[in-house]
Amino acid sequence: MSFTPKDEEKYVALSFDDGPNLITTPAMLDMLKKHDVVASFFVVGDSINDQTKEVMKRAISQGCEIENHSRTHNHMNRMEEEAVKAEISFTSAAVEEVTGRKPEYFRPPYISVNQDMYDWIDLTFISGKGCNDWDAKYDKDFRVNGLLKAAEPGTIFLLHDFVGNDATVQAIDEVIPALKAQGYTFVTVSQLFKLLKSEGDGQTIYSVVPDNR
User: Catalytic: which of 18, 69, 160, 161?
Assistant: First the structure.
């Protein structure tokens, strides 16, 4: 999927952490397909296996992209250099094997970062604006309201597709058409940077991409 950038266009990106799996990731993909939008999936390397590779291939076939969320989902700001680099290289290699594309973006587990990680990891760091959807106590309506309030041009939404997170599947079914009605176009994280003519500086973690058009 490609877009011709227009200065007046408002772009946002949906992103999902902690997959891939055989239950919630396909449900998210069903919802994206229903609304004809794309998203970025930040995957955990140890969750990639022969079965989940097929889910990843489906995501690519729908125009989505796969990015890096570490191998083991641990606090990488507490790790030594060799361990940090191993987390990244394992997942990037696994993603490239399935998709033919190396990840360009990295979301640190727990958004835990330090200067060493910026120095050691040659990817653009991504955070995002979320709705605490990792916590089951927040229902679908809370999530919908939180995402709609968070929306602004250039926003990266930080959500999760771990098994059982059905409330987020239901939430995006409402959020996507609501934001489309406000004039937003949904793109992947990499498309968002390109469309806004922005580049990661290697020292910043992004929740909203600067618009340099």
Answer: 160
- Answer positive or negative: Cα dihedral of 126, 200, 59, 39: positive
CA dist list (Å): 48 to 34, 58, 124: 25, 14, 22
Out of 7, 17, 50, 201, pick the active-site residue: 17
Cβ–Cβ under 8 Å, residues 115 and 148:
no
Q: Please tell me the pTM assigned to this model.
A: 0.96
Cβ neighbourhood burial of 89 (10 Å; 0-12, 13-18, 19+): middle
Architecture of domain 10-206: Alpha-Beta Barrel (3.20)
Is 160 annotated in the active site? yes
Q: What is the pLDDT of residue 6?
A: 58
Active site residue 75: no
Per-residue pLDDT tens over the stretch 105-163? 999 999 999 999 999 999 999 999 999 999 999 999 999 999 999 999 999 999 999 99
Distance CA 10, CA 6 (A): 9
Residue 3: pLDDT band (50, 70, 90) is low
Dihedral of CA atoms 168, 169, 171, 173 in degrees, nearest 10, equals: 160
